[in-house]
Amino acid sequence: MLRGRISISLRLTIWFGVIFLAGWVLFGMAMWLNLKHTLANERYLTLSRRVDRLRTLLDKNADTDERNKDFREFAHATGGCLAEIFRADGSRVLPSPTQAAQAFPWPAIQSDVEEKLYHVYASDQPYWVLAQRATLNGETVYLTAAAPEGGNLLVLNRFWVGLIASAPILLLISSAGGYWLSRNSQAGRSNYCSCSFD
Questions:
Q1: According to the 3-state scheme, what is the secondary structure of the chain?
Q2: What pLDDT, in 10s, does the model give residues 41-78?
Q3: Inter-residue contact 86 to 144 (CB < 8 Å)
Q4: Backbone phi, then psi, for 68, in 5-degree steps?
């Protein structure tokens, strides 16, 4: 009889643990996907603001030399920002503002879209590149800006590691709670049965 009780308790404990673990995994995946989506949106907004600033900068001056100067200052003011202005054929409208921008592997811009987000690798590091169509002196051009994805990946990795690290502790607590509930439930049932016989 005692062995049967222990067997039932262990089975209930295992069920508690399995249900908790499944719920924890689903919760963790949902939170990770939500965090990934949020970080991607923030990266897009950052790039979009940079492109908007670049658009304002170009509209401010019509003189080519002044535009070149403003473009370089814009790049250095944003910490060596990776930005370029391309024509539809891929040629640069203005000289590269930094050596990093000149060496960066810019993607081939699709001329049939108003805006597009590209994913590229540079020096084995992932980058997001935002390209927006604009008009400069009556010519269609594409304003592009790039930013590394490494920071986002680091945050996502730390979140996932923390989630996995906390799972064993929470699994132990939930299993102990399940075992305690099952034992109390059986004890209550036994008392009920003994009282009925009295």
A1: CHHHHHHHHHHHHHHHHHHHHHHHHHHHHHHHHHHHHHHHHHHHHHHHHHHHHHHHHHHHCCCHHHHHHHHHHHHHHCCCCEEEEEECCCCECCCCCCHHHHHCCCCCCCCCCCEEEEEEEECCEEEEEEEEEEEECCEEEEEEEEEECHHHHHHHHHHHHHHHHHHHHHHHHHHHHHHHHHHHHHHHHHHHHHHHHC
A2: 888 998 999 899 888 888 776 677 888 888 888 888 77
A3: yes
A4: -60, -45
Torsion of CA 59, 97, 87, 122, to 10 degrees: -130
Q: At what angle do helices 150-197 and 2-60 cross, to 10 degrees?
A: 150
* Cβ atoms 177, 3 nearer than 8 A: no
